[in-house]
Amino acid sequence: MKALFVDTAGWVACADGADPAHVRCCAARDAALEAGQALVTTDFIVDETLTLIQFRLGLGAAEAWWQQVDRSARLRWERIDSDRFEKARHLFFQHRDKDFSFTDCTSFVVMREIRLTQAITTDRHFRRMGFQVVPAPRGRAPRT
Fold first, then answer.
1. Per-residue pLDDT reduced to its tens digit, 118-131
2. d(CA 21, CA 121)
3. Domain 3-78+116-134: which topology?
């Protein structure tokens, strides 16, 4: 599957024009869509994203974001069912030396399961788990 995962940090950066990564994350999202890639996210990511947009920008902005993604034919939703939840729980407690959130772990499980290697995010945890972050962190050349 030619797709790109979108994490909470990526969605929020795209929604918030004041976010330092706004332009770069929007450009990464738009480039993926122009290249014919689908965007993939999870119900746990949507939960976090709606909450963060509401806190940062207000309920109206959260609703506008929801309406945009809910109507998108280019967005693939992955649900965190009981099997994925248990795999994420195992990963969460397995990596005691990391400060992964539980939602990060659900994302890692989904990405591994459907064989995605790239995520639009500014969250360093994705790199720590071996995924490529798009856009590349400032000051680093993208991996080829």
1. 999 999 999 999 99
2. 9
3. Rossmann fold (3.40.50)
